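Feature request, filed as a ticket because there's no other form

It would be nice if the structure record came with a short human-readable summary line next to the tokens. Right now we just get the raw output. Example of a typical job, pasted below so the devs can see what we mean:
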Amino acid sequence: MLYEYAHEDKIDLIVTIDWSTPITHDVLYSGLSDFDETAYFYALVGRIEKQWWAYYIGKVNNQYVSQRHKNQDHKQRLRMLREGYPDMVWHITLGTPHVEGGRVTPGVIDDIEGLLIYSHRHEETINKSKISRFSSSRSIKVVNKGFSDPFYKEVGYGVFRSQE
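Raw output as currently delivered:
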């Protein structure tokens, strides 16, 4: 069954995220990712049977993703993934948001991160929060572009109706 927004002209927040080609962490740490200066989102991704999956989705507000990933909690997450999946090569993809008719704010970033985590969770997801429910005071539409293989092309929050 397909759904569409009940009030397409009344969506409060429309964001397109441009996802970078996945890179390994050593490349991220060396500063070779052009997206590091503009990214507010990132996802730890792995490839299983020719399909990419996002295992952790996160955000940054006041620092580069490469700086955030030097923190102990992120080193521990990566270590946990490597121990759980020793044959997988772990990559990271960085997401740069573009807000239609608005600007990037901490509140926008928080809402989008929550919707991304909630809508892309699976049994091996290692996010601890925002996986069981999502709530926002505004209707939201997120379009994933660029390297969007581990993501749905579009996710939304609000009032929907069946197209049938």
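Something like this underneath would help us a lot:
The first strand starts at residue 3 and ends at 5.
The two ends are 7 Å apart (CA to CA).
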